[in-house]
Amino acid sequence: MRKSFLISLFFLLCVSAFAQIDLRDSVDIQNGNQTTDASIRIVDEALPVESSSSIEKTHSPKTAALLSTVIPGAGQVYNGSWWKAPIIYAGFAGIGYGLSFYQDYYKSFKTAYNSYRNPYLAQGLTPPADTILTVRGETGYSPVNVQQGRDFYRKYRDLCIIGVSVWYLVNILEAYTEAHLFDFDVSDDLSLHWEPAYYCAPVCRLNPSPLPSGVRFTFSF
Description:
By secondary structure, this protein is mainly α.
């Protein structure tokens, strides 16, 4: 009887020891996993986050400017603002009409003035000031009026040439600028969001449960 009691007691002690060993191993494995998770979190916190500015944009401002240089308005179409192309061509048409108008009148007054003056200059004579000239089928112009008309129309013809050049450059710069703002958010959704930020220091290896250490504010606009 005593022998049976001792055998039973020994058996119970062995079972209790094995249970404690299994429990300790499971706790160690769990702690090891938590430590690994904490290490992963530390590595994730240490890794630099790739910002949106470092990502290469697929919409190229240089392409937009090049397209508008080759074909005015093509850069605007590339930017998605196809409605601007008719405005650009309307501007060219308006300035071009002014250029044609002033060029035509400038040539008429210039031809009339040269036809009056050149024969006298070829003979070394001074052209008479009381001559009546005809320009574009209209009679009654004095030499001074014809000269003033020639200078007037030449001035505005030159301004139209400058206007065409300026409008061409505006077309390129507008396409280039709009391409830079292509991904810019212009919505009315301006809000402020906050959320806790967690950082697990190396000491967390002893206590792997992370604690909140700050507040991160995110602006959405």
